[in-house]
Design brief:
The chain contains 4 helices and no strands. It has about 140 residues and is mainly alpha-helical. The protein has one domain: Multidrug efflux transporter AcrB transmembrane domain (Multidrug efflux transporter AcrB transmembrane fold), CATH 1.20.1640.10. It starts with 17 loop residues before the first helix and ends in a 7-residue tail after the last helix.
Length: about 140
């Protein structure tokens, strides 16, 4: 099993965007794949923000529980703002999928919206718990 020693390792939600394809059309298209790539970048950025802040707090000598709690609160706003900014701009594209000219934009918007929802929830709820569980036995940070 991997560890959270490197900030680029947690990428929750990037593989969950397929749920939005299943719920909406069930068709994986080139625009949907482009949406996966976009979502991968956003989920990666959010995971790196969160875990790198944990690592910085641990290097300052903070206890693990305090690190996870404070680090999660500190990074909640940037993670939510990234997701909300991207998500709110894509809602009109996802809704207007049956209009002429939106055949490419709509699948991409639906994939990104679905993935943003799951990746944001996982970054906020699951990554802190997993980070804590993996690092519970460690005393120091490299």
């Amino acid at each position: 099993m991997g560890s959270f020693d490197h900030p680029a390792q947690p990428l929750p939600g990037a593989d969950r965007a397929g749920f939005s394809i299943w719920v909406t059309s069930g068709i994986l298209s080139i625009p949907a794949v482009i949406g996966f790539n976009t979502l991968f970048g956003i989920a990666t950025r959010n995971g790196i923000l969160l875990v790198s802040h944990y690592l910085a707090l641990r290097k300052k000598g903070r206890p693990l529980y305090e690190t996870v709690l404070e680090g999660s609160v500190d990074r909640l706003s940037p993670i939510l703002m990234t997701a909300l900014t991207a998500g709110l701009t894509l809602i009109p594209l996802a809704i207007a999928g049956d209009l002429p000219g939106n055949e490419i934009q709509s699948p991409m918007a639906k994939v990104i919206l679905g993935g943003l929802l799951t990746s944001t929830l996982l970054n906020i709820l699951v990554v802190p718990v997993v980070y804590y569980l993996i690092n519970a036995g460690k005393k120091t940070v490299r």
